[in-house]
From TrEMBL:
Example GO BP: isopentenyl diphosphate biosynthetic process, mevalonate pathway
EC number: 4.1.1.33
SUPFAM superfamilies: GHMP Kinase, C-terminal domain (SSF55060), Ribosomal protein S5 domain 2-like (SSF54211)
GO MF annotations in UniProt: ATP binding; diphosphomevalonate decarboxylase activity
Protein name: diphosphomevalonate decarboxylase
Domain named Mvd1 C-terminal: residues: 174-301
Length: 321
């Protein structure tokens, strides 16, 4: 029996990944850029056990079967393929992020699983190889392997599609949670519907590639205001795109719009604050670390708020008994 435990944090994209070029390999239609957070960790222990008849999955003390277990078992098949192993594994995971509420729980989940499973099966992978492996579980997980700000290169194939660190100004994020329930349509399903039915999808793909170049430059120049402006435009474009599916999907609620209104009011008051929103109703405010407490105070009237700073990439830890 061999065992390994890993911790990973979610990441929030400032240039979004929305759409796949290759669903089997999880190759994205465009590159993306994100900040790994220092809050809401996922801790995952993988125990490889020759005596098990099948893989098993426990999340926050509950045994899971069906789709979540199938996804994990398919991912373990990839790890077993790399390791030349056949034994099944027990996966025990705890998530400090509300699962499925558009706060990137799949990113921290598959990043932690990639690090723990590869170690438990005896693989010694480089950060780039870990990022490529995590990508196979969930695209955005490729970025949670990286500390701080990461750029995920779209790449041409499995080998060239990975995330790596990129220079960026000091920043903070205020996470404004308005809804903790599971989102109605998964990002996986919504991405396919977008690509198949939205007339705007080709324009999203070409414009996002250009947006990413501008974002990487703005980050390297340390221009936080420009980083925020590009991020908010990109997020609102993604939601406009998603709403243009047939049948339409709308993740934004009236509570999300209330938060967006307050961010505009803060900006009118001279506060550097810009919104981004993943595939859910919760809003994340990109800001200067010095102004984060003031923004969190203001938004506390309409959302529950947590201030996040750049956090560590996924890593192995000692198992807690
Ligand atoms: O990695 P997935 O399949 O959970 O998709 C993530 C999609 C967004 O969170 C909306 C955007 C992103 O780049 O993280």
């Amino acid at each position: 029996m061999t065992q390994a435990t890993a911790v990973a944090h979610p990441n929030i994209a400032l240039v979004k990944y929305w759409g796949k070029r290759d669903a089997t390999m999880n190759l994205p239609a465009t590159g993306s850029l994100s900040m790994t957070l220092d809050v809401f960790p996922t801790t995952t222990t993988v125990t490889v056990d020759e005596t098990l008849a099948a893989d098993s999955l426990e999340l926050d003390g509950c045994t899971l079967e069906g789709t979540p277990l199938d996804r994990v078992a398919r991912f373990l098949d990839i790890v077993r393929g790399l390791a030349g192993a056949s034994a099944h594994a027990r996966v025990v995971t705890t998530n400090a992020v509300p699962t499925g509420a558009g706060l990137a729980s799949s990113a921290s989940g598959f990043a932690a699983l990639a690090v723990a499973a590869s170690a438990a099966y005896g693989l010694d992978l480089t950060p780039r190889e870990l990022s490529r492996l995590a990508r196979r579980g969930s695209g955005s997980a490729s970025r949670s392997i990286v500390s701080g700000v990461a750029v995920w290169h779209a790449g041409d194939d499995d080998e060239t599609s990975f995330a790596e660190p990129t220079a960026a100004p000091d920043m903070a994020m205020v996470i404004a949670t308005v809804e903790e329930r599971e989102k109605p349509v998964s990002s996986r399903v919504a991405m396919v519907r977008t690509a198949e039915t939205s007339p705007f999808y080709p324009a999203w793909v070409t414009s996002t590639a250009e947006t990413l170049e501008r974002m990487v430059d703005a980050c390297a120049a340390g221009d936080l205001d420009l980083v925020g402006r590009i991020a908010e435009t990109n997020a609102l474009r993604m939601h406009a795109l998603i709403q243009s599916c047939d049948p339409p999907i709308r993740y934004l609620t009236s509570a999300s719009l209330t938060v967006l209104d307050r961010i505009e009011a803060l900006r009118a008051d001279g506060v550097l604050a810009y919104a981004t929103i993943d595939a859910g109703p919760n809003v994340v405010v990109l800001c200067d670390p010095a102004q984060a407490p003031r923004i969190a105070d203001d938004l506390a009237a309409v959302a529950s708020t947590v201030v996040a700073r750049p956090g560590p990439g996924a890593r192995l830890v000692e198992a807690v008994a």
